[in-house]
Design brief:
Layout (H helix, E strand, L loop, with lengths): L17 E2 L2 E2 L1 E2 L10 H14 L9 H20 L8 E4 L2 H16 L5 E4 L9 H10 L2 E4 L10 H7 L4 E7 L11 H10 L3 E5 L11 H4 L3 E5 L10 E5 L1 H6 L10 E4 L4 E3 L13 H17 L1 H20 L4 E4 L8 E6 L4 H10 L2 E2 L1 E3 L4 H7 L4 E5 L6 H19 L1
Parallel strand pairs: 3-15, 5-6, 5-7, 7-8, 8-9
Antiparallel strand pairs: 1-2, 4-10, 9-10, 11-12, 13-14, 14-17, 16-17
């Protein structure tokens, strides 16, 4: 019996809600995770006791806020095993982080005739910035061919990564299929040709221990709200030599070293990329989320997520009239499915009547929908507060949906 990890569900107050007379079963963590009481209390305490702007004043509250903000950067760097805290840039989320790389690095490093390698399974946030970069520079987009089960093989990578490849941008884990991609191998290939590896870690950082240098990532983007933290805070990790060579893309207060009426020079990394008042409370909340996840143990979370994802895949695969997409193994904690003859939005509405929250639509991955040959899918995604009983609830909700529409 797969239970929620060490009964952590009790740490998440929202899971006590009842929806339409049923207990809330949250199967939409790939969109956003729920927050433990410790994160909520930490942010509440910051606003109650230490709210002030950072890096600017010398009074007590400003000193406390700056210390909390700095500590959050240190915790984040340690969590992903960055070389130093300054390699962590705070952003609004994965989307802003990837756009920052495309603008700040891509505009300098990519020229006409160069190639940018993507995959059809990428979230729009890891496609559109590169499309726009290609339009600005005259570079060419190349897409890795997916295997029949929605995985990326080494042979497929070798066919598209070559001497003209400047950037390879891939998700570590697909937000739709739960596919776990071979980032280390892709990084080794692009590094042989002098290019860089950009990793969308929005789905992976919450679910597995991350060591950016071992992974081979030159840049890694992820969001706080998918890993038990608040919305509006994200991270861009970059190798220091790349960050130092990049130009900022947001200009204003605190990102400068000197300004006169005609010119300006930039502050050191990371302040160079954090113009304006940052999301201080968000960073503090992210630090609390990292403390919480570290307390549970990322290896345990990884094993739990993988086991639940594979169990859910096998369970849904056994139901007649249900199509499940992606690989059976290894499988992360998100899976997409369709019920024959029922639109995914109708599926999601029936599920909601039973207290089960899932996602329906194209999941910001329309090229993948085209590859699958569908317009949209339903998606269930699990996290540390889910257990085997939630897979059973998912199965029963599917059966009830089938009964409802058969009537």
């Amino acid at each position: 019996m797969i239970k929620p990890l060490v009964d952590v569900a009790q740490d998440f107050p929202i899971l006590n809600r009842r929806i339409n007379g049923h207990r809330l079963v949250w199967l939409d963590s790939a969109a956003t995770s729920q927050k433990p009481e410790s994160v909520i209390q930490t942010m509440d305490r910051f606003y109650h006791e230490s709210n002030a702007n950072v890096l600017r004043s010398v009074h007590t509250l400003a000193d406390e806020a700056t210390t909390a903000f700095t500590d959050a950067r240190v915790k984040t760097a340690q969590f992903i095993r960055a070389g130093r805290p300054e390699e962590v840039i705070f952003t609004r989320g994965t989307t802003e982080s990837l756009n920052l790389v495309a603008r700040g690095y891509g505009d300098q490093a990519v020229n006409s005739g160069d190639e940018i390698v993507l995959s059809p399974m990428e979230h729009h946030s890891n496609i559109i910035p590169w499309q726009q970069l290609a339009r600005r520079t005259g570079a060419t987009l190349r897409y890795v061919e997916l295997a029949q089960d929605g995985t990326i093989t080494i042979d497929a990578l070798e066919r598209v990564i070559g001497p003209r490849t400047r950037i390879v941008a891939l998700s570590r884990i697909s937000n739709v299929l739960g596919t776990i991609n071979p980032i280390t191998e892709a990084a080794a290939m692009v590094h042989q040709h002098g290019g860089v590896m950009v990793v969308d870690g929005a789905q992976s950082v919450p679910h597995e221990a991350t060591a950016v240098r071992e992974l081979g990532a030159d840049f890694l983007a992820f969001s706080g709200h998918k890993m038990c933290g608040p919305t509006g805070i994200g991270v861009l990790y970059g190798r220091m030599e790349l960050l130092e060579a990049m130009e900022p893309v947001m200009f204003g207060g605190e990102m400068i070293s000197y300004v006169d009426q005609e010119t300006a020079t930039w502050a050191e990394v990371p302040q160079k990329f954090e113009g304006g008042t940052p999301n201080i409370a968000g960073a503090v909340g992210l630090g609390a989320a990292i403390d919480y996840l570290a307390g549970v143990g990322m290896d345990a979370i990884h094993e739990h997520s993988r086991t639940l994802g594979e169990l859910a895949f096998e369970t849904l695969k056994s139901i007649p009239g249900v199509a499940v997409y992606g690989p059976a193994r290894p499988h992360a904690a998100a899976l997409a499915f369709n019920i024959d003859g029922v639109h995914p939005h109708d599926v999601a509405q029936v599920f909601d009547s039973l207290g089960v929250a899932i996602r329906a639509g194209h999941h910001c991955a329309q090229p993948l929908m085209h590859w699958l040959g569908v317009g949209s899918t339903a998606r269930a995604s699990f996290y540390l507060y889910n257990g085997q009983d939630d897979v059973s609830v998912l199965k029963e909700a599917i059966l009830e949906t089938k009964r409802f529409f058969q009537r």
